[in-house]
Fold this protein.
Amino acid sequence: MSESAPIQLFAKQQKIYPKRVWGRYRKIKWLVMIVTLGIYYFAPFLRWDRGANAPDQAILIDMPNRRAYFFFIEIWPQEVYYLTGILILAAVALFCVTSLAGRVWCGYFCFQTVWTDLFVWVERLVQGDRNARKKLDESRWSFTKLRKKALTHVIWLLIGLCTGGAWVFYFNDAPTLFEQIMHFDVPMSVMWWIIAFTFTTYLMAGFAREQVCTYMCPYARFQSAMFDRDTLIIGYDAQRGEPRGKGKRTSPSHAWLRHHETRSEDRASLEPVSLHEQEASAGNNRKIGDCIDCSLCVQVCPMGIDIRDGLQYECIACGLCIDACNSVMDKIDLPRGLIRYDTTTNQEARDAGAPVASSWSHILRPRTFYYAAIMALVGGIMLYSLLTRSPLELHILHDRNPLYVLLSDGSIRNGYDVKILNKTHEDKTYTLTLDGIENATLTIQGAGHLSPDALPVFADSIGHFRLFITASKPAGGRHTITLRITDRDTQLSHERKSLFVSDQ
Ligand code: SF4
Ligand code: SF4
């Protein structure tokens, strides 16, 4: 029995030199890059007035004070479920978009794609297009090579520095920190984050590039679970393009296109022209497909793959091969779309000469409705809880040991930890009241001047109090009680249930 070759789980990186390309999808990518980078770099400088006792940065994660701010939304650590909701929404939205349009997130919006695109643009700007870069890499070291390489890496590092700098702005007051950076007066902890993000950006976008998508990102591996026959994917039309080759284009592909461009009611009179028929009818004149085998679609691909080999998990659906091929088709005066976004259902229908479904049918399908329903449900719950969010909250924790104390006069005393969350940006005074036990006395421990009638809590903070409830021994061992705090200015109140224990 012959020994089988070991399975290769990792292939050594082959440097890819993506060629410049123009076209509709390249323009969309430029636009997305400008918008996403613009948001990332400048959003921390947006201001949002929240009053005197709160930061005025529109988007801020305030770690020391344990708050997150997003325009009019302020999230406390107790409200981390909002974060869960946002993550669920983001995940389902990603599933929905992937099931509709394949890996458009990867091809246009993913930070790895956006920064790699930017780094390749810099590389091209300094070192030239694909052939020039290849030639430079293959050439011996010279002053010109050193200058171009050094300039490229310096610009990459500067972009990395801006990226790391912008990241820490989201966790600090951006204008203040910017001024500190300008004066080289940055706290050490902040400095480490900037350094870490500078080098992460430099390594990931400058060197690792497509390896991140191929080996590090799990999304590429499980995306196929979200694909179905109605998902838009980028595909090469082999029936039209093959057999590929150089030479003068003759009729077969045009006959094929005529067939598919014909209105559906006229299609019955036309039979699809199969390759076999094309070749048979061609006689000695070998018919060739529309692909002239120029390899431009491969040269522009940032993942270094040949889409003509079929859908591959490395493909990030960026559409650059479509732009490249369309430009070739324009030059040789053939219709565009040899490589295009299409669904498997439509592709098979075209191959079989059957009518092609309307573009809505791939959007309006059960899977889309499930995803939309989940997003509407989660979004609705989050919106409702945001709109009905109370600016004050009460938390009560009954003592576990001892559960109660029998006092010398025969009355029973229970102890509680009380927390009052003042989520407003004003200092407040609250009144604490009790329901559920007759003639009970409320005392606040350790602060003689404090009474349950007037508990002060600073703006945007939590007031901690130690509460004792004393009552003559009621019948029964455990009694449900209701504690209520009321804002003395607005009369807004919040209540919690707890227990009063008088027997084991
Ligand atoms: S084959 Fe390459 S160029 Fe074409 S969409 Fe996929 S990743 Fe982009
Ligand atoms: S760009 Fe178009 S014509 Fe050129 S090799 Fe690719 S598929 Fe064929």
Remarks:
- Residues 251-284 have pLDDT under 50 and may be disordered.
- The chain is about 40% helix and 15% strand.
- The longest strand covers residues 411-422.
- Residues 392-501 form a domain with the Immunoglobulin-like fold (CATH 2.60.40.10).
